[in-house]
Amino acid sequence: MNNIYIIGIGLIGGSLAIDIKSNYVDAKIFGIDSNENHLVEALSLNLIDEKATYDDLQKADLVVLSIPVDKAILELPKVLDKVGEQTLVIDVGSTKLPVCKSVESHKNRHHFLATHPIAGTEFSGPKAAIANLFQKKTNIICEVEKTTFKLQEKALKLFQDLGMRIRYMNPEAHDKHIAYVSHLSHISSFMLGKTVIEKEKNERDIFDMAGSGFESTVRLAKSSPAMWTPIFKQNRENVIETLDEYINNLKQFKALMEADDFDAIYNEMKNTNHIKDILKGLN
Description:
about 280 residues; alpha/beta; globular
C-alpha cells in the first residue's frame, strides 16, 4: 500500500500513520482534517507527508476514517462516493452498528471494512499519537462478508503487520459488549471525578491525598467529551442497560455497608478478584 489517506489526524489516526510508515517504507501518508491546526501539527510532527481533499481519494490504496462517530456516519458515504477501484476504506469508531447502517445500500459498500481497534489513551489530537499503540491489541471486525475478498486480504495483512489480534463480531454484539468493557468504564471514571470535585472544593486536598489507585481509576475522565458524547448517544440503549446493572451493584454494596455485613462485602470482593484471572488470559 503506497497511498494512505487518513481522515482525522488524532490519537488513533496519527498512531496508525506512525506504524504504517515504519512498516511500509514506500507509503506516502496524506492527511484530511476539518481542523487546519491538526494538519499543521501533523505535518510538523512528520505524521503525514501532505495535506489532501476528498477529490484525491480515487488514488488511495487505503483510507482510514478516524473521526468522532457522529461525524463518521455522515462522512463515510461521501468517502465511498470518491474511492477508486482498488481502494480499501476502514473506520476505527467505538460504535459499529450506526456506521454499518449508514452505508448498507451504498454502491461501493464492498470497499468498506468496519473495524474497531481496542487501543488508545486518554489523550487526543496529533501530539497524542504514539508508536506501537496497536501491538497485541484486539481489532474487532464487523460484517467482513460485505467487503470484497481482495480488500479483506489487504486489511488483514495491514493489521497483522501492525501486531493486532483479530476478532470477528456482528455490529449488534459489538455495540452491546463494548458498552460494558469500554463505555461504562469511561462513565464511571467521569462520574468518580465529578463526585470528588464536587465534594472536595479545596482542590489542593485532592492532589495531596490522591494516590495511584485514584489516579488510575479517574484517568479516563481526561478523555475528550467531543469524542465520547457521540459514542454514548449512538450506543444509548446498551449504555443505559449497563448503567442499570452497575447502579444496582452499587446499591447492593451500599445496602451491605448499611447492614454492617462486612462478611458479605469480603465475599463480594473475593469473588470479583476472579477478574485477575480473566484479564491475565487476555495478555
